[in-house]
Amino acid sequence: MEQQPYTDSTELLADRARLAGRLADDGYLYLRDVLPEAEVARVRHQVLALAAEAGWLREATTTGTSQPTGVDLPAVDVEAVARCPGPTRQAVQKAMWCLRDLHALLHSTSLLTVLEALLGEPVLVHPRKVLRFVAPERSSVVSGWHQDYPGVQGSPRTLTAWTPLAPVTPDTGGLAIVPRSHRDGVLPLRLCAGTIVGWETDVPVDVVHSGPMNPGDVLVFTAHTVHGGSPNTGGLRLSADCRYQPLSEPVCRDCVELDDGDWDDVYRTWPGQGRDDPLAHYWRELPLDIVAYDPRADVAREREAIAAGRRHDPAAARALQVTAEHSADPAVAAEAAALLRALA
Length: 344
Ligand SMILES: O=C(O)CCC(=O)C(=O)O
Fold this sequence. Notes:
Layout (H helix, E strand, L loop, with lengths): L1 E4 L10 H11 L1 E4 L5 H17 L6 H4 L1 E2 L5 E2 L4 H6 L2 H13 L1 H6 L3 H11 L3 E3 L4 E5 L14 H4 L6 E6 L10 E3 L11 E3 L7 E3 L5 E4 L7 E5 L4 E3 L7 E10 L4 E2 L10 H5 L22 E2 L4 H15 L6 H10 L3 H14 L1
Parallel strand pairs: 1-11, 15-16
Antiparallel strand pairs: 2-12, 3-4, 5-14, 6-14, 7-12, 7-14, 8-13, 9-10
Helix pairs in contact: 1-7, 10-11, 10-12, 11-12
The site of 2-oxoglutaric acid (AKG) has 10 residues, from strand 7, strand 13 and strand 14.
Family: Belongs to the iron/ascorbate-dependent oxidoreductase family.
GO molecular function: 2-oxoglutarate-dependent dioxygenase activity; iron ion binding
InterPro entries: Oxoglu/Fe-dep_dioxygenase_dom, Phytyl_CoA_dOase-like
């Protein structure tokens, strides 16, 4: 697999047609200095404060790592994160994700201007943003090569923006993109025990675009572009991502509603409890065509994982674990758990 640097499309920002043309050709855009650095830094400091409060960071004075760009990033206490009980870890990550400034950052005018230019019409910013606090300990489990569309559904014209909140270095790894991989629609998957979901896109990956990124830089890519998080063998990787789609096209309910609580619980953590905040429930005022999540592909994958488990295929281990934890069918979940135990 050949690693090449991202193609820098920053100079095309002034030329909407060429920018859209580059996205249509390559399936992604690497754009420098799109988000205001001070706003990115504010979110980073708030996330780090929550991490420090949870005891996840080493003393900055003794172990802080000075990044090439001059951002001082404390080192993660990998053992402390690993020792943290699951529910506490989830609560800390949820507190990070709730930060109002994180949500606001992903609505920045400078970013929305780019996305509106690319989509050529008013944009719906998906309410469900993603914050990724990736400690080096998780390097063995990566997101794996995947496309966003099967999970996001709704409009096939949806775009993802991925942005680092701290510098991405060769050690922390960033987001790797398979250029021009977006042209054949939804691609088949294969079982892969080393990825978060247990599957990855089943295509030969000969050339990958990746590289360092600075806070403020953004990668924009299509819902069909194959991409994946790179292994993190260095320090903390902090990033945020969000999906944007034409306002006039269908949006999947799961991109709007929360499955682990209620938006009011999120807003209660915002200044003034989010009352009169234009970012609270902003989509409720919009004329959205909200559609249900189509679970058929998930069900087919669960069936495949079970069949592979019955053949004692070790590649099915993670997919069986995911099926055991998340299948809507209790009998399928129980069989997946039993097959997983037999594989161990
Ligand atoms: O940041 C990562 O590790 C993966 C991100 C990703 O896959 C995405 O934004 O769709």
